[in-house]
């Protein structure tokens, strides 16, 4: 079996080869951690965004969507705490001159301990077979318990030092754990420093009058500053939500791992405004709802887990991540944060404007609490794409590369293929394209032998291939081939639309939530 690095490399090269993701400004050798979506990537990304938007906005009477600007008044970022607290602890290696996030170095060290636990569990599962009880094993096996305690202890200490801004202790922890530079192996570290992640820019035409701005590091603040506008004009009653998707920018210290950590990325965020005191129940409810959304895509329950935060962001009173098993291990995909009244109360303070809700049931005004769900669209893209890319051994000892995208998200729903480029077959196939294109993205392909064309569509993630052959001319039937099973059915041309619709309709997938 290929190792993780090879699998990840394959994901990156496949994404490029099939027009999903290109490096930004590639002809100039690219720009670090900035990527462009190609013809297929743009469609897949749009479909993921739409799947989120329909689940959040269209299917919830009390959630509405907005589209706020990327530029915001600079005081926004004072109020939100980003000017003072949106920092990552960085550390440099004196020998390799490489820069790292100090917390990530420690977390990667913990991940190695966790990998040891997984190894023990897998070994035991093999040994005990059907009788294996994972939970019992994890809580009683001395070696596993020891690893677990060690991992928890390290994370707890890291969380505490970061919370207390005790950067000397973060460095001490790195030294005590004997963490080495992953590239050079050197343990010669500088002190840990804070680094602000916001990108600055200027608005205005003359140097004297130019206003210093930031590119927004999260979309959430565009929602907070519009809270009353939406509440009043939409006559929203608490609890209610405001959703938005859009670009965010962070000057990440270390941005490797392809589109997992980018400097320009897109978020899909929803702020749910609630009565103070109800945050615990909404926190649990949204954790569950969001997990269900993920599971509805059928990418395997075992690939998801919750991770409760020890280290809380400056605005949160509880926070959990939904983690996904990426090719490089379980990592954060989405965050669910109980943000209290931190943001609205601070915007009140800095703007001098009231941001309160009059609750007719309580007959009083208050600053609502907020429960946030925040998912990176690009990270979701990577989760879907990497999980879908598979190499299959076929019966005739060949392999095929197939991109088993959830059909609802696939860029192209069907490819229409004339068996031969003559005898009137292309004309019939083209007619079918013209009929189907009103409902789905469809492609027409007449180049190469039909087997090659099937493989090409498999690798592209197209759920259906429809082949027009000589029999079609006689009885109006075509073969429809299913990407995942490779099964072929002979059906009447008039049935094709219905068969595709059943598999790709967003409604059918959303009903599973
Ligand atoms: P991380 O710990 O990975 O830096 P975070 O906790 O800072 O992420 P949040 O501020 O909670 O992330 O942002 C919400 C979501 O936005 C994340 O769950 C992730 O999916 C996405 N996201 C954050 N930073 C990036 C980035 N640099 N590139 C791509 N997606 C990102």
From TrEMBL:
Pfam families cross-referenced by the UniProt entry: HGTP_anticodon, tRNA-synt_2b
Binding residues annotated for substrate, in chain numbering: 101, 218, 265-269, 372-376
Subcellular compartments: Cytoplasm
Phylogenetic lineage: Bacteria, Pseudomonadati, Bacteroidota, Flavobacteriia, Flavobacteriales
CDD domains: GlyRS-like_core, GlyRS_anticodon
Keyword tags: Aminoacyl-tRNA synthetase, ATP-binding, Cytoplasm, Ligase, Nucleotide-binding, Protein biosynthesis
Superkingdom of origin organism: Bacteria
Function field: Catalyzes the attachment of glycine to tRNA(Gly).
Claim: Transcription regulation is one of the keywords in the record: no
Family designation: Belongs to the class-II aminoacyl-tRNA synthetase family.
Statement: the UniProt record of this protein carries the keyword Ligase: yes
First-listed, main subcellular location of the protein, grouped into a coarse class: cytoplasm
EC number: 6.1.1.14
Aminoacyl-transfer RNA synthetases class-II family profile domain sequence ranges: 136-418
Residues that hold ATP according to the record: 250-252, 260-265, 332-333, 376-379
InterPro entries: aa-tRNA-synt_IIb, aa-tRNA-synth_II, aa-tRNA-synth_II/BPL/LPL, Anticodon-bd, Anticodon-bd_dom_sf, Gly-tRNA_synthase/POLG2, Gly_tRNA_ligase_bac, GlyRS-like_core
Protein name: Glycine--tRNA ligase
GO terms assigned for molecular function: glycine-tRNA ligase activity
UniProt organism field: Croceivirga thetidis
Top-tier EC class: ligase
């Amino acid at each position: 079996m290929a190792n993780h690095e090879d699998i990840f490399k394959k994901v990156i090269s496949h994404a490029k080869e099939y027009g999903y993701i290109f490096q930004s400004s590639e002809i100039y050798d690219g720009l670090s951690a900035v990527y462009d979506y190609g013809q297929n990537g743009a469609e897949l990304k749009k479909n993921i965004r739409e799947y989120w938007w329909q689940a959040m906005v269209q299917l919830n009477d009390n959630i509405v969507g907005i589209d706020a600007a990327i530029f915001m008044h600079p005081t926004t970022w004072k109020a939100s705490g980003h000017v003072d607290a949106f920092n990552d602890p960085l550390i440099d290696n004196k020998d390799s001159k490489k820069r790292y996030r100090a917390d990530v170095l420690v977390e990667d060290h913990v991940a190695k301990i966790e990998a040891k636990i997984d190894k023990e569990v897998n070994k035991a599962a093999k040994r005990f077979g059907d009788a294996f009880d994972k939970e019992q094993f994890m809580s009683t096996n001395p070696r596993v318990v020891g690893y677990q305690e060690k991992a928890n202890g390290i994370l707890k200490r890291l969380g505490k030092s970061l919370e207390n801004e005790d950067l000397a202790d973060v460095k001490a922890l790195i030294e005590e754990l004997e963490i080495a530079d992953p590239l050079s192996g050197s343990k010669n570290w500088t002190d840990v420093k804070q680094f602000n992640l916001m990108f600055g820019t200027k608005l205005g035409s003359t140097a004297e009058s130019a206003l210093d701005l930031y590119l927004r590091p999260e979309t959430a603040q565009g929602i907070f500053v519009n809270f009353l506008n939406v509440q009043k004009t939409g006559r929203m009653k608490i609890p209610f939500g405001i959703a938005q998707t859009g670009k965010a920018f962070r000057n990440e210290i270390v941005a490797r791992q392809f589109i997992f950590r980018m400097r320009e990325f897109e978020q899909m965020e929803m702020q749910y405004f609630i009565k103070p005191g109800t945050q615990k129940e909404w926190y649990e409810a949204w954790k569950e709802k969001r997990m269900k959304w993920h599971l509805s895509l059928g990418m395997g329950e075992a690939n998801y887990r919750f991770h409760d935060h020890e280290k809380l962001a400056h605005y949160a009173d509880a926070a959990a991540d939904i983690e996904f098993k990426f090719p490089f291990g379980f990592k954060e995909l989405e965050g669910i944060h109980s943000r209290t009244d931190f943001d609205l109360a601070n915007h009140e303070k800095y703007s001098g404007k009231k941001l309160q809700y009059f609750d007719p049931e309580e007959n009083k005004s208050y600053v609502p609490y907020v429960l946030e769900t925040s998912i990176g669209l690009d990270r979701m893209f990577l989760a879907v794409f990497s999980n879908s890319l598979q190499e299959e051994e076929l019966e005739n000892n060949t392999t095929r590369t197939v991109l088993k995208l959830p059909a609802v998200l696939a860029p192209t729903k069907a490819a229409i293929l004339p068996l031969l480029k003559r005898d009137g077959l292309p004309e019939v196939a083209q007619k079918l394209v013209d009929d189907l294109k009103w409902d789905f993205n469809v492609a027409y392909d007449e180049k190469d032998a039909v087997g090659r064309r099937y493989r090409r569509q498999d690798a592209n993630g197209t759920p259906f291939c429809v082949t027009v052959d000589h029999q079609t001319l006689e009885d109006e039937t075509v073969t429809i081939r299913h990407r995942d099973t490779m099964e072929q059915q002979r059906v009447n041309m008039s049935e094709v639309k219905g068969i595709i619709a059943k598999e790709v309709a967003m409604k059918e997938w959303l009903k599973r939530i």
